[in-house]
Records
---
Amino acid sequence: MDINKTLAQEFSLRQEQVDNTVNLIDEGATIPFIARYRKEVTGSLDDQILRELSDRLTYLRNLEKRKEEVRTAITEQEKMTPEIENAIAAAVTLVEVEDIYRPFKPKRRTRASIAREKGLEPLAVILMAQENSTDPEAEAAAFVSEEKEVPDAAAAIQGAMDIIAEDISDDAELRKKLRAAANDKGTITSKASDAEAESVYTNYYEYSEAVSSVANHRVLALDRGEKEGFLKVSIVLDESVATDIIFSKYIKANNACGELVRAAAEDGYKRLIFPSIEREIRSEMTANAAEESIKVFASNLRQLLLQPPLKNSVILGLDPGYRTGCKVAVIDATGKVLDTNVVYCTPGPKTNIALSKKIIKELIEKHNVTTISIGNGTASRETEQFAAEVISEIPQKVSYIVVSEAGASVYSASKLAAEEFPDYDVSLRSAVSIARRLQDPLAELVKIEPKAIGVGQYQHDMPQARMSDALSGVVEDCVNSVGVDLNTASHSLLSYVAGINSAVAKNIVAYREENGRFTDRKELMKVPKLGKKAFEQCAGFLRVRDGKNPLDNTAVHPESYKAAEALINESGFTLADVAGGGISVSDSVNINSVSEKLGIGVPTLTDIIGELKKPGRDLRDELPPPLLRSGDVMEIKDLKPGMELVGTVRNIIDFGAFVDIGVHEDGLVHISQICSRYIKHPLEAVKVGEIVKVRVLEVDVKRNRIALTMRLDDEAEKKEQQKKEQKKQNKPRREKREKKGFDASKISNSAFRIKQK
């Protein structure tokens, strides 16, 4: 197999693009570096395509490796034939290779192997020939042997049939056809292990759906329900469909031998083939569902990490709690901890609302706090109510926001947290994290294992190694796309920079602490274990603010400094102009001619121009800021169908999006309610962190469930149509009648409106 050619076809890329990309990967170049600084040779492939290509490259190389192992194993048995060699060469999946190897694979003792030990294989060959002249009983009589434990002809025939059944089950081509039939015409069904048992899987107690159409989230739900003992899951295929395929190949005559082969084939299908194929199909369904779930998780994580930071704000973090109180931490605009405390503002044995308010008000006044960040865990709603009351009682303009505290406890108990805050207990570290993840989500969340951040579905059921690799890749891409301040970044953040591992990251921090701040990128070469290759990979992603060279505060790579300086001079500017806030390259400049003159590619030149216009820019600044609150707090019981609100998308799953609308429970926007047009997945229309307008459809207080819709225009059109129909009826009394029901125009979304003081 020409792997590069296969990749080019699968990804619809030019052969040159694939060849160059594979060469860069093999040379040890990182995906972020390739995506950003090797656009000319890759054809400007982005980091997501590059990672998919890299993953597929690994799979195909493993496939070729396994093919060679199978060839060697069969050849050593002296059983290799041109047909087998061609089949191995034509195989495109690992499953196909294993099917080919199945007959030659060492097996445990089976009914067929025992029959072969008894010398019954020649009888099996005779039966398989299905000659009209053959008398099975007469032929079998010759194989009767007390010594070999074949007491009679019937036992001999049964042994021969066991051999036939296994041989048929080992037919790679047949298994491929049957697997395709099961995928195309099979159904997946589930029944309750105990119909009376209460569980979240009641929808699957009597369930059946085509294998070809079952949604990924249902596959994962079935797997989990089965694992937890609530469901019995199986694949069902009409037996006649399968036997028709088998008989068409193996039944040659309608005679006594043919009937025995038919019976053996049916036995082989029921006992050997179908159970195996069922396991394979379910495994494949699970793997595909897991892969898609990981992609959703990765997309959600990407959006969460790239949430805009709340800059130039002094933030007070609140980690809610009942018995142990609410932990408090105040951080300045750089993330430095200014103050900590504990208040008892929620129901509990030590509750003191008055004292708690006094402490918070004093902290706000003392440190000029502008924003309160509240964790969304236990006691979050009560803490939010408390914060809103405090805000309403003070003259300062203060807003608050509820942030996800997923992973905060993991971080607070980690070795990293202990190193950062050796004098703080675990709970106070969590409060600091809650404050910092509002101030700079990316810098704080990289300290937490990605799968602990909690933006996905069934993450604990995923193949952990694969998920960790995928999510780490997302973190790496996000960190490098934003860039990292070399003089302030923690070693955990630095470790995600292209070309820098954990050990080198710690060395950078140690060098910085010993020698003071970096003044230029070249100084990195003095850091222990950071060689030329690592420097090439990481330099462009590290920022040196207020350094010797203004280009060090941009994404321009040092290898392109000469070209950048030439462009600056050509445009009539100096490096000082860049440091002063950027330069503007005229739109009339002929990019192609300048590119040729400077000796760099057009994509690189375009990137340089963008950086020179906005040196030190943060791409997150171009995104909508987080939705802050400072008004009344609603509880779920206060919600009514028809209410229109503004919320923040917290999580996206296969069948919808969860939106924070200011109550403790997030509301679900089902995929059918996201937009009017048909979409295959919510990610086509919405993303994590996006601020959206929603309407309440249904509220289930008992089950803490809120159903929302984003299809507001649909309702507006419906109302307009109703007005038109009403006019047609020409009934004046109804025109004069006061309009009843919900009027969206009168709604004040007080939970999200920032009050000016």
---
Amino acid sequence: MLIFGAVIKSFTTRMFKSNSGEPYAGKLHVRFLEEFISNCLIIREGENLLMRMKEPYEAYLDDYNCLDVYMSKNFFGGKSRIFHMKDTKNRIIPLTIQSQSDLYNGFTHYALSLNGNLEIGQEYTVYDEYCKTCVAKYSHIVKTERFAKEFTYEKDDLGVTYTPEKTTFKVWAPTALSVNVGYVLNGKKIVESMVRQDKGVFSLTVNSDLNGVHYSYLVRVNGEYKGVTDPYTCFSGPNAQYSVVIDPKSLNLPKKIKLKPMDSECDAIIYEASVRDMTSQTGIGISHPKKFVGFTEENEITKTHNTGFSYLKSLGVTHVQLMPVFDFGSVDEVYPNIFYNWGYDPVQYRCLEGAYSLDPANAKLRIEEFAKLVHDCHKAGIRVNLDLVFNHVYVKENFALENMVPDYYFLMNREGEFSNGSFCGNDIDTQPYMARKYFIETCKKIIEMYDVDGFRFDLMGILDFNLMNEISEECKKVKPDFMIYGEGWNMPSFVAEEIRASQLNQAKMPHVGHFSDRFREVVRGSNDELSRKGFASGQADLIYQVKCCMAASCLDHVFDSPTKVVNYVECHDNHTLWDKNRVCCHGESRDLREKRQILANAMVLLAQGIPFIHCGQEFGRTKQNLGNTYNRSDNYNRVDYQRRDHHIEIVERTKELIQIRKTHPCFRLSTVEQIEQGVQFDTIYDQVLVYSCQKDKDHCVAFFNPTNIPYDYHLDQEARILFDNGNSNSLDTFDIHIAAFSVVVCQFGLTA
């Protein structure tokens, strides 16, 4: 059943390496009470609001005393000697032309001053000398200090407050002329007007038990009616068609499991996985593949064949990082198998993705299913980090917060142009108070409801570091070892470079981690040029850069703490390491490429910092030589357990390396001082890296040989061999033999 809205089809393109490279398919949104809004809703198919001057005559309120008017020269030659405004109460505000300029695109721009007081929330019509009219749209005015002062709302009661006796709806919409709530009670469709209160808040209390009731809002702003779901709720119908009132006490959530706190972020071993991909292969014993419940399902088949959650548990990782699980726009939740998408196109930030639920129409069920997933992981000793996409949305024009307060939540300049650092044309603005408050409260709500353990932020460089610090502070109040990290690329957005949450500003974010693209480029080789090798694929002359990377880029002061450095050679983006090596190590045998895979995995797992492994990296996962498979179907993206068995040598060796890291604190140094004191490097003929780590009595040495030449190294004291995939050494020895393309790890102090 549907509440407010119309059929809207939109397309947006994401072209950055981070998440996609082709246009997203538009998601269908249809809502009910169509008979109520059919006479007032303006539908514009494929409307693009990324720039001004789309219509012959436009006006924008950009400040309290400034109205910008754009007139096409095809419209009375773009000329008017006089203008005035009239509000909905028929009050006139005279306008004075301050400047007039001809633009290159066939428009004339007028800067007008207001000779009267502006009342935010009123709807204003602009008249020119020919009595032609257009609506004065609230635009850059929402970014002004005065607007912030007048409309900052500090209470935490937006959304729905439910009791069996009454339900109160509250939304923040200061520029709206009116807001209505539409809901269905006892089979009757009801529309009620909300009352405007202080600070731009609209409120309505319904004195009935609305538990389970479907609802949405109808907002009149900038001369248009918009059907809007509730951006503050966690309860949604399928495909974001409506929101649902739910009694929070009716949720059947599992009891939280308290895990032993980590001493440092460097104790984490992160494993990136998709809810869908882990269980989408047929014949692996999963009753509910591609679903929340299927992710942690175990039975005799999964245990016998080591598939799904049984396999995840066997690896020994400490954290699973789930790719987006909150509502995204490129999969039909009712028919999820028709489409495939990773989910980096947010629609509702607080509602879980219905495609992963057994019943997307059951708003409670998806909450309970995901809470159980987290609980099951915690029961197995695995923490859960979530991939959050706070940098952009799927379709700006359909985004609930945008339709509540147009332009407020998006990065735009004074001329009405929108930032495009995400390459989606709708970068989120996290600096205004109510935007910042929304995202911080969203993070707190997610932790409160699901008991998750960390957040990974997509294209974090579009956000500002103050927000990231506030999120980190609030999350660590709940869980001191909560992890905050993200893609700290320096994105070309409207955010000033000095406040971006990028690697360049890592020193300003004491508890925020960053993916080390430096580590990836040096160890793996170029992401952009597949033929360019890294150290692990045979480029031994990168050995100096490798030293820096293995020390968490702290010794050369790129980072000021190893707890901020996420080391990786593969993630969901771009070619897998196996497919990369298929190109840059062309002609090498499968056996040799397995050794290269083990070598790279060893460097990730033994380097100082935080190791990150992409699901399948431990068995040479392939995406059939494609770099970007964000919408390429299960066939390209599923975890292939037959391939896992085919490359079981990589799996077993990776497990050994995981255990070594967990056992030996010398590979998990948490400060620059510890690295300076405990990490030393040597080389064998500038070809083989000798990496020595020590913390207190724990002292290990690792040898990494990316060449086809075996080497020997004499130790000053006898050592115990912990790892040797070249199988070239006795258990206890002074003389280390490092076979071609192999890794050797030894420990001092264990021999008799």
---
Amino acid sequence: MDQRVFLARLAGTSVFDPNGDRVGRVRDAVISRPSSNKSPRVRGLVVELPPKRKIFIPLSRIIEISAEQVVSTGVLNMRRLQLHSDEILGLADLRNTTIAIQNNPIKQKIVDLAMGYDTKSKEWSITSVFVKGINSNFMRRTDNTLVPWSEVKFGDKLNSSTEAENIALQISQMRAADAAKHLLTLNTELRWSVSQDLDDETLAGVIEELPEDDRVALIGRLEETRAVDVLEEMDPDDAADLLSELPPETAATYLELMEPGDAEDLRRLLTYGDYTAGGMMSSDPVVLAPDATVAQALAAVREEEISPAMASQVFVVRPPTDTPTGRFLGVAHIQRLLRETPSTAISAVLDTDLAPVSPGATLSEVTRLFATYNLVALPVTDDAGRLVGAITADDLIDHMLPENWRELKEGANG
């Protein structure tokens, strides 16, 4: 083996195209499902593209790979990551797994995995694991050790589906609200096991739909790095709500571990009251500059992650287009854009009559505006006229319902 890279160190590394433009970040590696003592082959990398879309890049499309950077050929398949039955995720599925090692009576927990490149076969595979001993004698310290893959013993766990894995597969195919309802029917430990088997994006959607006590309990059991990954997958307004429900020191730790841009958005949202426009809004609506074309606007709202309400209009601002943006100019409604030629600038079809609200606007003020003008979404601007977010109809309804509405049985009166 001429090269070795540790997956936990690789996670978070930037991925570039041949021109040096940043494509996204590495989040994990797809490997063949382990069997016997043969090193699992690394089939490709899980790369997260903005806005938080995880795709698969096969190693055949990777030019350079190191802990400092990954360079791709620039040819990407934009479909969402989907694993085959004979594949698992290296970090998500193996890290923290308890294993046995040949000639060692102490159980071990996997901390990291090393992938090595074989110049003869020209393939990457998992060649060794970095483990930490689990000793029942708390007075005795156990060291971290690098162990060859051939000495690792998993038992049957990775070769057969557990009840939790089967339920997780079912949940991943449900709507988030239905998945959350199903999760709550499980006993506490099975609920936890299922949660561990869900990918970050699915778990984030489920947590958004759970009652307050349940989501606080669930996020609190996750390891810090996993909790941060899940929070970054959540809608910013939901993530801010959850952070506000956690102990202040825990919330502060999560914010420190987040990507700086995500943390900045959440810190800003946390300064607003729950039942104000700032507390209800999302900080990442669809925003474009006035010289963008109709074709670009329609492409922007086509992203699967964007809710139908948020995709109903594009918010047009002076640069920069990240919130807080430059001066807010108006909105371009999708229904109007569909009637225009693709090359038309969106500045030509702006609705400037939709007056924004301030972050301090109350729930009753926002509700009256939605009802009076039959709105689907409403811009929120600061004192300088910069767009800081947008409130959608579903955000508003969430705040109009009783706090415990998720726990009320269907048909029950609030």
